[in-house]
Design a protein that fits this description.
By secondary structure, the chain is an alpha/beta fold. The protein folds into six domains: about 180 residues, 3-Layer(aba) Sandwich (Rossmann fold), CATH 3.40.50; about 70 residues, no CATH class; about 190 residues, 3-Layer(aba) Sandwich (Rossmann fold), CATH 3.40.50.150; about 130 residues, PAS domain (Beta-Lactamase); about 100 residues, PAS domain (Beta-Lactamase, 2-Layer Sandwich); about 120 residues, PAS domain (Beta-Lactamase), CATH 3.30.450.20. The protein contains 27 helices and 35 strands. Strand 33 and strand 34 form a beta hairpin. Helix 1 crosses helix 6 and helix 11 packs across helix 12. The protein is elongated, with a radius of gyration of 49 Å. About 30% of the residues are buried. This is protein-glutamate O-methyltransferase. GO terms for molecular function: phosphorelay response regulator activity; protein-glutamate methylesterase activity; protein-glutamate O-methyltransferase activity.
Length: about 1000
C-alpha cells in the first residue's frame, strides 16, 4: 500500500537476561482518575511471550502514571486465560474491559473477545460487537481513537502477529506527536504486524519486548534529554536561533518546500519531538545530525507535513457541501467537464469523499457529466497510497454502510475504491506554494492545510486559489481557516463550514505564478524602487543576444495569457479599449487574431511548431506593404512546461502577400473553411477509433471484473482463514502456557504425595482407576497398565471389600466419609474418602487415602496406661526441660496454686528447683541428684522429702532414672508415701535434715 521509508533506529541490543523473579513489593496505588498517559499494546499470533516479557520488565511503581491496554485477536469461542497468565508477570491490577468502564492509571486493561474498542473523549471505554463475516482490525481502531483523545500523551506498541493490524494506527499516533514502538521482526515469533508498521516509516523506535518496556518508562518520566527551547512568542530565541535557522535552511533547501514560511510553533514542536527521540540536547546538535543523516531529514519533513485525514472528515461541513452540489452541476453546459481541485489531499480520503458526493449528486439529478478531480499533495508517498485506492477496514467507522457497499469493494481485510469513483480522480504531485495552480476550477477544496502557514503565505496561496477558480467557483476551507484580506472577493455560502463563492476572478503576475523549473531569464524579480538590477554581466549579454537574434515573441500560459514578452511586439499587438487583458487574440486585428487562434490550436494538438500563411500588417504612409507569419510551438513536452506556448512574429517579404484585395479579404475565410473540413474528417476518424477502443475496453473490463470477483472471493476466504488461524494460535499459546502450569502443579503434587508416603487412589465418577501413588501398592497390587480399569476388578490386601461401593456413595452424595479399619495383622487405617470437582460444581470422581494410624493408636494406648498410674511422671531431655507429663503430674500441679506454670511441659525442671522455698535443702539435693543421673554419673537417684499442705502433712519419694537410648534425658517420678511414714520416721527425717 505504501512505499517503504527508512527504518526506525534499533534500541541497543543486549544478551537476553535470565528471567527475573517477580518482585512486587508494595502494590501500586491506583490514582483513581484519568491517567496522564495511555499505553496500548497490540499483539496477535505469538504475542503472549512478548506481552509477558514486556510486563516482566515494567516496574509497576514507575508505571503508575499510565493506563495499559492490551488488544489481541481473540477467538470468540474460547475463554481467554490472559488475565491469569499476565498475573505472573506483573503486580499491576489486571481488569477485563466492560463497556463504559473508566480508564484508571496504574492498571492493565484487557480487551474481551468479539468486540472492538475505542476511547471516548470522556476517558471511558466504548465496546462495539464485531460485524460477523468481516475481518476486524481492533488494534487500528484503538490506536486511532486514543490518538484523537490523548494526542501526544499516547504510546502505541506493535508486538508479534501476522497481517497488518496496527499499521494505520501508528500513523495516527505519530501524526499527533505520540510515541510509536514496534518489536524488532527478528525477536517476534511472527513478524507480519511489526514489519508492516515499520514499513510505514512512522515507527519511532524498535526493540525486543523488554527494551520497549524500558523505553516506555523513559518516555513516561521524561528521562530522555530535553532540548533547550525557549518559549518565545515566535517559537525560539536566544542562543538557539542559529541552530534553528540552520535546520530550516537545510530542510527548505533539500526538500524544495519553504518551511521558513510555515508557522514556527508547528515546526518547533515537530523539531522538539525528533530531538527528543534522537537524544539531541540542543538545536545545534540536531542541525548537525540533519546534515549527516538524509533519512532523518526526510522523517522531519514528513512529520512537519502532518498528513491526518479520513473520509468525510467534519461530516456536517461535507453535508453542507452536498447541498450546494446540485446547483453547481445544473450550471454546467452540455459537454463541459466539472473540474474540482483537492489541494493537500494527503492519502486521498478527501478526494474520494468529493468524488462520492459528486457521484451521488449526479445520480440524484439524473446527470452524466465528465468529472475531473485533481488531487494533489507535496508528499509522493501519500500520493502512492491514494493512487492505489486501497484502505484498511477501519474506514468502516468513517463511512455509512450504504456508501461502503456502493463505492468500495472488499478485498480481504482492505477496501478498494470502485472503478467508477477511481476514474474521477487524478493524483499528481504539486506544491501549492511554488507550482502553478490549476485553472478553470469549479470547486476548490483545501482543508486544514493553510493553518500551518504564516499569514503572509496564507494570503499568497489564497490568491492562487482565487486565480484557479472560475467566476462563481466554490472554495471549501477547513473549520479553523479564513480568507484574510481576500474576503472582499468572495461571498460567504456557509460561515460555520467555511464555504465561499468567488465574486471576481483573480489574476496572477508571473512572479506570483513561479512556474517551476523555468529558466531564470523568464522570471520577473520584484525590486524596491532605486535598487539596481542584480543581473550579472553575463545575464545582460544573454538579454542583448535575445533582443538581437530572437524575433519578437510572446510566452503564453495554458489559459492563453501572456506571461512574458521577448523583443518589441508593439507592431503586432495593441491594448484594446475597456477592461485590460493579457489575451493576445484580443490585442490583434480580427484577421490576424483568427489566424493566431488557428495556429495555437494546431500546435497544441500536434505538439509541434506550426507556421501561418503571410498576414498583412498594414501599409505605412511612406513604404511598401509589411507582412509577417505567426509561428506557434510548445515550450517543452514534459510537465510543468508542456502547457506553455511560444508565439513568434516572423517578418516576410511583401511579395508573398496576395495583391488582389478581394483575394486578401477572402483568404482567411477560405482558410477557415479548409480547416473546418479537416477538423470534421479528423473528428469522424477519432470518433470511429474511440468506439472501437470502447468496445475492446468493455470486453476487457468484463473479463477483468470476472477475475476481480474470483480474486476477491479467494482473498476473502484466505483472510478469514488467516484470521481464524491467528485466533487459534493465540488460544493455543494460552493453553500451552496453562499446560506448563498444570505440569508443574502435577509434579509438585506428585512429589508431595511421595513425601507424605500415604497410599492414595483416584477414581472417576464411574469408580474407574485414574491415578495412584506408589505407596498404594501396600493396599492393591496395582501396575501402571491398570489405569482405566474399574476399581471393583481388584481385591485389596486389607479385606475392605465394599470400598468401591462406598466410593460410589461418596460420588453420588457429594460428601466425604471416614472409615477406621483394622487388618488381620493388626494394622490400623484411617480411610478418608472425598469427592473432587472441576471448580464449577461438577463432580469428576473421588480420592481415597489410607492413613496408617497403627503407631498412633499404640501411642494412645501407652498414654492411657501412663495416665492411669498414681505416680507423678515427667520425661526430661538432657538439659532438664520437661518434655512429657502424665495426668497425675498435671492434676497435682494444678492443685498447688499455679505450680503448673513452673513445672508444666516446656519448662525447665532445674528452674523449678531453684525457685523453691529459699534454703530448701530438698530442692537442692533433688537438682544435684538429677544432674548426676542426666550425666550418667549414677544409675538412679532417690529422695524422700516433705511437701506439706495447709491442711495436712505429706511426704513424697522422688525417683530419677536415665532414659535408655542415645538421646539422653531422664524419667522423674514423685510418689506420695505419706501413709508409709510414721511419727518416728518423720522425726528421723527431720533430725537427718537438721
Amino acid at each position: 500500500m505504501t512505499t517503504r521509508r527508512h527504518p526506525a533506529p534499533d534500541l541497543p541490543t543486549a544478551a537476553k537476561a535470565p528471567e527475573p523473579r517477580l518482585r512486587c513489593g508494595p502494590a501500586p496505588v491506583s490514582l483513581h482518575g484519568r491517567p496522564d498517559f495511555i499505553v496500548a499494546l497490540g499483539a496477535s499470533a505469538g504475542g503472549l511471550e512478548a506481552l509477558q516479557d514486556f510486563f516482566s520488565a515494567l516496574d509497576p511503581v514507575q508505571a503508575r502514571p499510565a493506563a495499559f491496554i492490551v488488544v489481541q485477536h481473540l477467538s470468540p469461542d474460547h475463554k481467554s486465560m490472559m488475565p491469569d497468565l499476565l498475573t505472573r508477570s506483573t503486580c499491576l491490577p489486571i481488569t477485563v474491559i466492560e463497556d463504559g468502564m473508566p480508564l484508571v492509571a496504574g492498571q492493565v486493561f484487557l480487551i474481551p473477545p468479539s468486540v472492538t474498542l475505542r476511547i471516548t473523549p470522556t476517558g471511558r471505554f466504548a465496546l462495539r460487537p464485531k460485524t460477523p463475516g468481516v475481518v476486524s482490525l481492533p488494534i487500528d481502531i484503538l490506536f486511532t481513537s486514543m490518538a484523537e483523545v490523548f494526542k501526544n500523551n499516547c504510546i502505541g506498541v506493535v508486538l508479534s502477529g501476522t497481517g497488518s493490524d496496527g499499521t494505520r494506527g501508528v500513523v495516527a499516533i505519530n501524526s499527533v506527536g505520540g510515541l510509536t514502538l514496534a518489536q524488532t521482526p527478528s525477536s517476534a515469533q511472527f513478524d507480519g504486524m511489526p514489519r508492516s508498521a515499520i514499513a510505514t516509516g512512522y515507527v519511532d523506535e524498535q526493540g525486543d519486548a523488554r527494551q520497549l518496556a524500558r523505553r516506555v518508562l523513559e518516555y513516561l518520566h521524561g528521562q530522555v534529554p530535553e532540548p533547550v527551547l525557549l518559549h518565545a512568542p515566535d517559537g525560539v530565541s536566544g542562543p538557539e536561533q542559529e541552530g534553528y535557522r540552520a535546520i530550516l535552511e537545510d530542510l527548505s533547501t533539500r526538500t524544495a518546500i519553504p518551511f521558513d514560511q510555515y508557522k514556527q510553533s508547528t515546526v518547533v514542536r515537530r523539531i522538539h519531538r525528533r530531538m527528543t527521540l534522537r537524544h539531541c540536547a540542543s538545536l545545534t546538535d540536531y542541525a548537525k545530525l540533519l546534515r549527516g543523516d538524509p533519512a532523518e531529514l526526510q522523517t522531519l519533513r514528513r512529520e512537519v507535513l502532518i498528513g491526518v485525514t479520513r473520509f468525510f472528515r467534519d461530516g456536517p461541513a461535507f453535508d453542507e457541501l452536498a447541498r450546494l452540489l446540485p446547483d453547481l452541476l445544473a450550471h454546467k453546459a452540455k459537454g463541459e467537464p466539472l473540474r474540482i481541485w483537492s489541494a493537500g489531499c494527503s492519502t486521498g480520503e478527501e478526494a474520494y469523499s468529493l468524488a462520492i458526493l459528486v457521484h451521488e449528486a449526479m445520480q440524484a439529478a439524473g446527470l452524466s457529466l465528465e468529472v475531473k478531480i485533481f488531487a494533489t499533495d507535496v508528499v509522493q508517498d501519500y500520493l502512492d497510497v491514494a493512487s492505489a485506492g486501497l484502505y484498511p477496514a477501519t474506514i468502516e467507522a468513517e463511512l455509512s454502510p450504504q456508501r461502503l457497499d456502493a463505492c468500495f469493494v472488499r478485498q480481504g481485510e482492505m477496501y478498494r475504491i470502485t472503478p467508477a469513483i477511481r476514474r474521477m480522480v487524478i493524483f499528481a504531485r504539486h506544491n501549492v506554494i511554488t507550482d502553478a495552480p490549476f485553472t478553470k476550477v469549479d470547486l476548490l477544496v483545501c482543508r486544514n492545510t493553510l493553518i500551518y502557514f504564516e499569514a503572509s503565505l496564507q494570503e499568497k496561496v489564497i490568491k492562487r486559489f482565487q486565480y484557479a477558480l472560475t467566476d462563481g467557483g466554490i472554495l471549501f476551507l477547513g473549520s479553523s481557516e479564513s480568507l484574510g484580506p481576500a474576503a472582499r472577493d468572495f461571498m460567504v455560502l456557509s460561515s460555520k463550514n467555511k464555504i465561499f463563492r468567488t465574486l471576481r476572478p483573480g489574476a496572477l503576475s508571473l512572479e506570483a505564478l513561479q512556474i517551476g523549473r523555468m529558466d531564470r531569464a523568464l522570471h520577473v524579480v520584484s525590486r524596491p524602487p532605486g535598487v539596481a538590477d542584480p543581473a550579472t554581466p553575463m545575464d545582460r549579454i544573454k538579454d542583448a543576444l535575445i533582443d538581437t537574434l530572437l524575433p519578437p515573441s510572446i510566452l503564453l500560459t495554458e489559459t492563453r495569457e501572456i506571461a512574458h514578452v521577448f523583443g518589441d511586439v508593439s507592431r503586432f499587438l495593441r491594448l484594446p479599449k475597456g477592461q485590460a487583458t493579457l489575451d493576445p487574440a484580443r490585442m490583434m486585428a480580427p484577421g490576424a487574431s483568427a489566424t493566431l487562434l488557428q495556429v495555437l490550436a494546431v500546435a497544441r494538438r500536434d505538439r509541434a511548431p506550426v507556421f501561418s500563411a503571410p498576414i498583412a500588417l498594414g501599409r505605412p504612409a511612406d513604404g511598401p506593404v509589411e507582412a509577417f507569419r505567426i509561428r506557434a510551438a510548445p515550450v517543452a513536452h514534459e510537465a510543468p512546461l508542456d502547457q506553455l506556448m511560444v508565439v513568434t512574429f516572423l517578418p516576410v517579404q511583401a511579395a508573398a502577400i496576395v495583391p488582389d484585395p478581394a483575394d486578401a479579404a477572402e483568404a482567411p475565410s477560405a482558410r477557415i473553411e479548409m480547416l473546418e473540413g479537416e477538423l470534421a474528417i479528423t473528428r469522424e476518424h477519432l470518433q470511429s477509433t474511440i468506439e472501437e477502443l470502447e468496445a475492446a475496453n468493455e470486453e476487457l473490463q468484463a473479463a477483468n471484473e470476472e477475475l476481480l470477483a474470483s480474486n476477491e472471493e479467494l482473498q476473502s476466504t484466505n483472510e478469514e482463514l488467516q484470521s481464524v488461524n491467528e485466533e487459534l494460535y493465540t488460544v493455543n499459546s494460552e493453553y500451552q502456557e496453562k499446560i506448563q502450569l498444570l505440569v508443574k502443579a502435577n509434579a509438585d503434587l506428585d512429589l508431595m504425595a511421595r513425601a507424605a508416603a500415604i497410599p492414595t487412589i483416584f477414581v472417576d465418577s464411574e469408580i474407574v482407576l485414574t491415578r495412584f501413588t506408589p505407596d498404594s501398592r501396600l493396599i492393591y497390587d496395582f501396575r501402571d497398565t491398570d489405569i482405566g480399569r474399574p476399581l471393583g476388578d481388584f481385591s485389596n490386601k486389607i479385606g475392605y471389600a465394599t470400598l468401591p461401593r462406598d466410593l460410589g456413595a461418596v460420588v453420588q452424595q457429594r460428601t466425604g466419609r471416614e472409615v477406621y479399619w483394622r487388618t488381620r495383622d493388626g494394622t490400623d487405617y484411617l480411610i478418608r474418602m472425598m469427592p473432587y470437582s472441576d471448580g464449577e460444581g461438577a463432580v469428576l470422581g473421588a480420592v481415597v487415602a489410607f492413613i496408617d494410624i497403627t503407631k498412633l493408636n499404640q501411642l494412645e494406648s501407652l498414654q492411657n496406661l501412663i495416665d492411669s498410674l498414681p505416680e507423678h511422671l515427667a520425661v526430661l531431655d538432657g538439659d532438664g526441660n520437661i518434655q512429657f507429663v502424665n495426668s497425675a503430674w498435671t492434676r497435682f500441679a494444678a492443685a498447688n496454686e499455679g505450680d503448673a506454670e513452673r513445672v508444666g511441659v516446656g519448662t525447665n525442671y532445674f528452674d523449678a528447683c531453684v525457685g523453691a522455698v529459699p534454703r530448701d535443702s530438698y530442692a537442692a539435693k533433688a537438682a544435684a541428684g538429677l544432674r548426676a543421673v542426666l550425666s550418667r554419673s549414677i544409675e538412679h537417684f532417690s529422695l524422700r522429702y516433705p511437701c506439706h499442705s495447709p491442711t495436712e502433712k505429706r511426704w513424697f519419694l522422688m525417683h530419677a532414672a536415665p532414659l535408655q537410648g542415645s538421646g539422653g534425658g531422664a524419667v522423674v517420678s514423685h510418689i506420695n508415701i505419706t501413709s508409709l511414714v510414721g511419727a518416728n520416721d518423720e522425726e528421723e527425717v527431720l533430725s537427718h535434715e537438721a
